[in-house]
Design a protein that fits this description.
CATH topology: SH3 type barrels
Distance between the termini: 28 Å
Strand order of the largest sheet: 3-2-1-4-5
Number of strands: 5
Radius of gyration: 13 Å
Helix content: 10-25%
Number of domains: 1
Structural class: alpha+beta
CATH architecture: Roll
Order of helices and strands: EEEEEHH
Shape: globular
CATH class: Mainly Beta
Largest sheet: 5 strands, antiparallel
Mean pLDDT: 87
Length: 94
């Protein structure tokens, strides 16, 4: 199933290409921020923000409460673990 899963933006890795590391349930993955990049602020302003991530793209910003609730519902439905396992396969090694 294709889901948007909440992740916290932890680091900008390539400002020109609008790439960042996003942590999703302990898994770090490189994600494209082009869909949510601010036009009136530096990309660094997104560090610490929560976003819904789908197929390597941050699709929208959400608040921490919505992120927690979304993860809770996805976990209850058994969907979150499948997505997290798939992300581990392409996770950034630290």
């Amino acid at each position: 199933m294709c889901l948007g899963i909440p992740g916290r933006i932890t680091e900008i890795t390539d400002e020109t290409r609008k790439l960042a590391l996003v942590e999703i349930s302990g898994v770090r993955r490189q994600v494209n921020l082009a869909c949510i990049a601010p036009t009136d602020a530096p990309l660094d302003s997104l560090v610490g923000e929560w976003a819904l991530v789908h197929v390597g793209f941050a699709m929208s910003l959400i608040d921490e409460e919505e992120a927690a609730e979304t993860l809770r519902v996805l976990t209850a439905l058994g969907e979150a673990q499948e997505e997290i396992d798939a992300m581990k396969q392409s996770a950034v090694q630290l």
